[in-house]
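Aim 2, interim progress: modelling of the S-adenosylmethionine-bound target.
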Amino acid sequence: MTYREEVIGDCRLILGDCREVLPELSVDHVLSDPPYEDELHKAMGRIKRIDGQKMVDDLGFDGINLTRDVIAAACVKAASGWVILFTLAEGVRAWRDDLQAAGAKWDTTCFWIKPDASPRFNGQGPARGAECFVTCWAGAGHRKWNAGGKRGIYTHCVNTGRQGEHPTEKPVPLMMDLVADFTQPGQTICDPFMGSGTTGVAALQLGRRFVGIEQNERWFDLSCRRVEAAHRQPRLFAEPTPTKPIQQSLLGDAA
Ligand SMILES: C[S@@+](CC[C@H](N)C(=O)[O-])C[C@H]1O[C@@H](n2cnc3c(N)ncnc32)[C@H](O)[C@@H]1O
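Predicted structure of the complex, ligand included:
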């Protein structure tokens, strides 16, 4: 199978269906924002806003229900470290079952708190103020993360001042936090549902390599433009010069 592929610095962007492309890849981590559950996709067309404005009624891609198990298996096979996937709370259980069935070691569920989340436009109940992401370890050996005992709660506004074209664009600062906490400089992060390329932008900013897959040509082209622009920016992360680790002796200065 031939795919359209763009190489931008340390990034590979592939136009195609991730169910076909992922099995050919081997990466350190998968960090991705797949489509959410079918229920949400179906509900979108039915939502009536009480302020009379038009609601986005079709995201242009299918919900995850029918393909979740195949995607989970492909992510676990491709990664040798973390597999981190965004979902609604309703999808956590199903993702956990499918990731474990694929052989991953389940870790935990984390939360993205959205202080400026949209209100519930039909006024019939509380709006969603958070999304989840599930975390599991796909490789051998121990899980490694960089944030000590930090809680898995990430608070970031949805609106970062960027007028994004993609209907479900994640904020770059949120993705940068995840890249910084879960991955190491120089490692390769794969986003098989790249959308507008936000994970790639965050990965590049922090000195990670990136492989992105997107099936929709419009979003693929947008990703290429964003990743190219990020590639031209100075890195926020500078490779540290190796120093002798500073470790206090637990036995005191007996010598
Ligand atoms: C929730 S969006 C990701 C948005 C992204 N996090 C961003 O910040 O722009 C999911 C994306 O996955 C794409 N997609 C859906 N199914 C796919 C598949 N089987 N292979 C590759 N891409 C797929 C959709 O076109 C959509 O752009």
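Helices lie at 18-21, 38-44, 68-78, 92-101, 172-182, 198-205, 217-232. The domain at 4-232 is CATH 3.40.50.150 (Rossmann fold).
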